[in-house]
């Protein structure tokens, strides 16, 4: 398959997500982009796990990073016996998948596939490093291609001058939405909620939208109600970290309250992504509580005084009643009607 | 009157708000506190105007700063003829009051009073500088004392273990609430919304609450819905930059959406402050649109990429239907029943 990252903004090109080469994985440090364009170089799969846990990359970035991390694991154990290599890869698969609890489900689908690819290569006497690396790129191509299908349905919802409110950084879907809208010459206007504490909206989504030539305005997270009341906003859209089979959506902290505000102002909220098979309902979602020190700081500057505490839920859960539609690669579903999708789901990772 | 800033946190003590002495006004730089404790030294009233416009101080800080600025204006023109001194003070009164558009109404009440005090002293051959300075301290005492009365009604609403959500930095009311709650040994828990873009909640309100010994947790502005759903929050309270006669409340950007979210989660929102006589309805409110560059930065670090725009409404307007009560010095009024207060209002500035 042709590489699917053509004509996409800098952040979406494969080498700038996570990339294995010559015994190391380079991961673009999304915590600081675009203030600085730096890559974190990982020389072991444990470094990759650590980088994911520390949110060097986020959104869909970790899915690429764990695949490339599996290639690196294969490199690390290349001089061992076949049995030891397979055991090492099995362990790497588990550790990489569990770098962050909320997404362990999806991550393990990727690392287990990489494991199987690596194991097969080892047993056949082929190069497991290259096999895993190529398979990861294949996965990227399939994911980008699947998300392009999702983006088609989203772009169809938009008129030639729609104003779109975004939250956090939806990565692939953002890139595909922008590429398609540009191809179709839709003159979209983007409002990007900055998305504290890491400002992914201000730094990542807004950078992509502006790089692709669209009118792009960042708002602080507390301007949403003001924006919806005072400016024309046609649609709110976000990606999802989890979509349960019954239509609950886990996404970056802040999504839930934007959805509530959109309901108040009659702006429809569309989620993009594929339902997570096996995640039955909201009880199956684990919300990762991160170290509060991380949200009391920005760029290593501590904002608060001594004795002030923080709290840091990474994600929140939006219930189906606040969601107008879930946009999948096979069309748009009401959140309570995902069973229609689940009869014939796409397994894109 | 005894100085009313006893037993208050650092930020509320008069010398740490704005203070005239020996031909200069020192204003605590609230943009950077508590990261750094720095004061901006103004050697002309125009410097004070500039400092207010640049938000060196905010909330009630400007009310003190303009009074002290008027004392400084009197110092600047001290060698002129009486007529010239009076003209200079008149001009200073106008310029100081209009440093920021949204609060010009309240500010001019203060500067006009300072003007009259100064003029009277000049015509009597007395020292206008000291007269204005002492009158400004008197005003501070009266305001603190009035806000202590407001705080009594607020504290009465709280049980011994209430959890209180705050927005931005209400200054005097925050100090008085904390002093009274401490006196009454109420073991309050505070959640402070960080309040982008200047983080007044994280830096100022949270510092005061923690300094006074209360359990204090900062949340980012996008965690409000999560907090209200997952933690015990008994009340949301904020001060106001304007309260119209028919119950519309202007306050720091973000207040409106917290009020909407509180309605959703059945948490009552109480506004503290005195209605603005003459501000009939929401049409009489001017929302200051500030330079967007200011919200695309933090501590002079530009967060966004080139070609990304920002938007920066300083305030938003919360309608009466989202407000459970407006807490004044004469009791708690429903926002649509402020006429009861306005029959016999307190003029505290």
UniProtKB/TrEMBL annotation, chains A, B:
Q: Does the keyword DNA-binding apply?
A: no
Q: Which UniProt keywords apply?
A: Isomerase
**BP-aspect Gene Ontology terms:** L-methionine salvage from methylthioadenosine
Tell me which InterPro entries the record gives: IF-2B-related, IF_2B-like_C, Initiation_fac_2B_a/b/d, M1Pi_N, NagB/RpiA_transferase-like
In Gene Ontology terms, what is one molecular function of this protein? S-methyl-5-thioribose-1-phosphate isomerase activity
Per the record, the similarity remark reads:
Belongs to the eIF-2B alpha/beta/delta subunits family. MtnA subfamily.
Q: What is this protein called?
A: S-methyl-5-thioribose-1-phosphate isomerase
